[in-house]
Amino acid sequence: MAVASESATVAPLNSDQRLSLQCEEISTDTSTIRCLDWDRSRFDIEFGLRNGTTYNSYLIRGAKTALVDTSHLKFKDTWLQLLKQQIEPTAIDYLIVSHTEPDHSGLVGQIIDLNPEIEILASKVALQFLQDQVHRPFRSRAVKTGDELDLGTNPTSGNAHRFEFLSAPNLHWPDTIFSFDHGTGILYTCDAFGMHYCSDDVYDKNPSALAPDFRFYYDCLMGPNARSLVQALKRVDTLPEINTIAVGHGPLLRDHLKLWVDDYREWSSQRSESESYAAVCYLSQYGFCDRLSQAIAHGIGKADAQVQLVDLRACEAQELSGLIGGAKAVVVPTWPSQPDAELQSSIGTLLAALNTKQWVAVYDAYGGNDAPIDEVASQLRSLEQKEAFLPLRIRKVPDSNDYQRFEEAGTDLGQLLSRAKTMAAMKSLDSNLDKALGRLSGGLYVVTASQGEGSNRRRSAMVASWVSQASFTPPGLTVAVAKDRAIETLMQVGDRFVINVLREDNYQPLMRHFLKRFPPGADRFEGINVLDDAAEGGPVLLDALAFLGCRVEQRLESPDHWIIYAVVEQGNVADAEASTAVHHRKVGNHY
Ligand SMILES: Cc1cc2nc3c(=O)[nH]c(=O)nc-3n(C[C@H](O)[C@H](O)[C@H](O)COP(=O)(O)O)c2cc1C
């Protein structure tokens, strides 16, 4: 008989890499084992806010016992040890695999070794992927929307546990399922509704602290699949009342459940409204496709354009044809030079569904034996479509500069798609209002930001005039940064940046330089005299009048800008006699 779970914390594994574990009862017969990864950094695009992450798994005991998800391989010894303290592995009857991303399914092989009789429940696609991942035979059952798993009644609590499954493809992997336990009202969603936020709090106690991470995670992982989310939410609405969403990353959503679900509804319906979208294709479990496609998709989303991620391996032919045919732009990875028959057939469907009015583009998957990128590009352009951006080449394991380059290329593409909307918005202002607004003026500044070291150093810059002091104690300012600016990615809460104040008597060369249209990933400082170490957070321009070193405290969202409030930590003036350049405008519908 299973041991009752209790709250326990296992000490960090080592002091360099803070990893710890937590086990807590969350409902009747239900406990969570959370692996806390305090320092997981932002190298992966969605880890933007550097608050670490958690990998959550769940144990549910009826007459039979189910485990929902495992953990990341880095927790192999400690997670298995803690699990064994809770239950003898051979007493676990079922393992529900919400999706096969390795941070949740990394220890499935070990579970099979400990309990070869365990039955794995997952979507059909997930079971196929798992076979390639674990290389061991296992008992399995494919589940989809409406299928159930009855765990029966727990003999001690008298509570019955019955799982109902919902297909939730693309959230954020193609093979995702949600599982709802009718016995406790808990919905298990793994990646969906999650956030990368590591703390000892099991629940969402403090929503204002969590909100920026929740939003950032949504923008990176869920937004590109807003259409799939709307569909999944419709399925969720058919369930009885949910009291907790047990996520795979971050705190469980219970105390402010409605708030988070309403956010998902609002953001997803906004994003899926428009007819025009870019289809960003990828191949799951091939090279760096997954992360690279996310970087492109994130960039497209920044420009307020719709995007749909499409897994060429998992998408059914008819759906694939519809998604590609309906897209305004199609982005494709290099595929293996010798694709298997199924993939070959998907590629055929993809190429046949393209049409002449689309923008197209290609990126390297860096999968090991990719077809040459120029060959793929020319197949894609066989109908003489316009190229949205130059082929994105990868010659080594992608680093943060590559992800930045891919994101910027995505933003360029997004701007192509949202151009008509932007022009209409510029024309929509009443001309008197417009002229009056134009009488607001500001100084002229170059905002710079830099993160990372060596080959992982990322730098960016932009000209800004919407900068204003916003507090005395501590000294603080706001800068309004358009949502599609490249530098926006480097200005998340906690990030540092520098405001370079331009001089009235020599601002023009610097302004001309930084207003150039830079290709994706270009070094925006080439040919400019900078001091890299004078301020924390970004280069200081030698020809600037003054600089202010800032740390982002808060971000307020306006329809097209992020209003970034930052505390000023450093500052210096190069010439006490000179004045700040001022920007006078005639109209308020542009800068
Ligand atoms: C005078 C002037 C002031 C500007 N002020 C701002 C600003 O405050 N915020 C902003 O997001 N963009 C501002 N811009 C636009 C950006 O500087 C410019 O489009 C940007 O450098 C392009 O960078 P991107 O490639 O990242 O979009 C301004 C442009 C000009 C000409």
Question: Which key features would you list for this structure?
Answer:
14 helices; about 600 residues; alpha/beta; 3 domains; Rossmann fold; single chain; binds flavin mononucleotide; disordered N terminus; Metallo-beta-lactamase, Chain A; Pnp Oxidase, Chain A; seven-stranded antiparallel beta sheet; eight-stranded mixed beta sheet
Account of the protein in words:
- Strand 4 (53-61) and strand 5 form a beta hairpin.
- Helix 6 (226-236) packs across helix 7.
- The strands form six sheets. An eight-stranded mixed β-sheet has the order 1-2-3-4-5-6-7-8.
- The chain has 591 residues and is an alpha/beta fold.
- It is built from 14 helices and 29 strands.
- The model is unreliable at 1-7 (pLDDT under 50).
- It has three domains: 8-270, Ribonuclease Z/Hydroxyacylglutathione hydrolase-like (Metallo-beta-lactamase, Chain A, 4-Layer Sandwich); 274-421, Flavodoxin domain (Rossmann fold), CATH 3.40.50.360; 431-583, Electron Transport, Fmn-binding Protein, Chain A (Pnp Oxidase, Chain A).
- 47% of the residues are buried.
Offer a concise description of the structure.
With about 600 residues, the chain is α/β, with parallel strands linked by helices. Helix content is about 30%, strand content about 25%.
CATH-derived topology of the largest domain = Metallo-beta-lactamase, Chain A
**How large is the radius of gyration?**
25 Å
Q: How is the biggest beta sheet arranged?
A: 8 strands, mixed
Structural class: alpha/beta
Main CATH class of the largest domain: Alpha Beta
Bound small-molecule species: flavin mononucleotide
State the total count of DSSP E strands: 29
Q: How many distinct helices? A: 14
